[in-house]
Fold these 2 entries.
Entry 1:
Amino acid sequence: MGEDCLFCRIASKEIPSNVVYEDEQVLAFLDLNPQAPTHVLVIPKRHVANLLDAAPTQQDLLGYLMLKCAEVARQLGIGEGGFRVVANCGPDGGQTVGHLHFHVLGGRALTWPPG
Ligand code: AMP
Ligand code: ZN
């Protein structure tokens, strides 16, 4: 992967994004087409296609990504009001980019169930 994966190219800075958090393993950046006042994508820098593709050895990475979702929410001021973390998986899940990403959405009251 890498070359033809959009989020690998964003992770390597080949394609620019609005970064809100970064460390060795994780990048968080603003979604290009925000669905809420705050809409951030949290991704592992190393390619993982989606949750279905995650290996048991990546348990720590998955936990780390979840903690980073919360940290980013807090950092962007939506921790108190509340927010939603979403990982779309596969065609019926509505996944359009084949690199694992967690949507962190907030800044308005979100409806349920999703469409
Ligand atoms: P999903 O539909 O769950 O696979 O989410 C993919 C998300 O990536 C969508 O919310 C898109 O708006 C977002 N997206 C696509 N291209 C970019 C980009 N270049 N920079 C930031 N977000 C993007
Ligand atoms: Zn990738």
Note: The longest strand covers residues 38-44.
Entry 2:
Amino acid sequence: MNSLVAQMQAVLEDAREALAGLSSLEELEACRVRFLGRRGEVTLLLKDMGRVDPSERREVGRAANEVKAAVQEAFAAALARLERGRSLASGLDVTLPGRLRRAGRTHPVTRVMDDAVAIFRRMGFVVADGPDQETVYHNFDALNTPEDHPSRDPQDTFYLADGRCLRTQTSPVQVRVMESRQPPVRIVCPGRCYRRDTPDATHSMNFHQIEGLYVDRRVSLADLKGCLEEFARELLGPQVQVRFRPHFFPFTEPSIEYDFSCILCAGRGCGVCKRSGWLEISGAGMVDPAVFEAVGYDPEIWTGYAFGMGIERIAMIRHAIGDIRLLYENDMRFLAQF
Ligand code: PHE
């Protein structure tokens, strides 16, 4: 055998032996310089190729390249061995599978709120805002609520030490908006409300409403019905029906309550709609002239409708949630489903 090839094979043996005894990356680097560096043993031998007899050059060249590849492979293996050992020594096993980081999601209540606002904005409503800590004047008096109305009772309303209260509805924002600008007005106000209810499957002391108010000349009950029907279809689908029932609110006349047909059972009756086929959403009506007077609008000129709806209720219908408390418990097993 050509002596050059024999020499190279000997170098390969040396390299393997040296690599096997390594215990650090620094030693590995020294070893790399010794064999594969610019003046390393393998490199120098390859340079000698020029002196090989031309008749042998092809065969010797191939053998030399094989040896070089083998040396490089031995280095790669040694590097992998050292790196693995190093990560294990530091308590980190880079061969373990990765852990998926859970991404956050939008809460179902926030989703309904965002969707509702988007739908009303497309209809021409703009978003208005008001404080959660409200004056009794805005929450009750200006809304034509009599002194002895049961909703004012401290058993139902949270009163603050300074005489204000936590708003029991988003309707006071109607008053604030009308106090601050001239008609026509077309606003929605999404927000938190507070009532001293005993929590159960359908009641929470803290819940959300979205309020709507439209004031202009010649606004009619038909406009209100059209608006709510359109909203229901946009939010829950074209098959949804809306039902209006006579009701009473101090600040609207006439007043109605409205129900959406249950989208879960298509009106046939199920557990969520308590077998009735309908789900109560909230109240609405034509703005009472007494409210216009309280804010300084002339009731002879201006007409308007208002509505309020419970956001949680809609979220519960949308996702077939049977208990309102699930929305506030922050249980990941529940929240991760949306
Ligand atoms: N504020 C009423 C409630 O909380 C709902 C409502 C809003 C009714 C606007 C009429 C007009 O029940």
Note: The pocket of phenylalanine is lined by residues 169, 171, 249, 252, 282-285, 306-308 (CB under 6 Å).
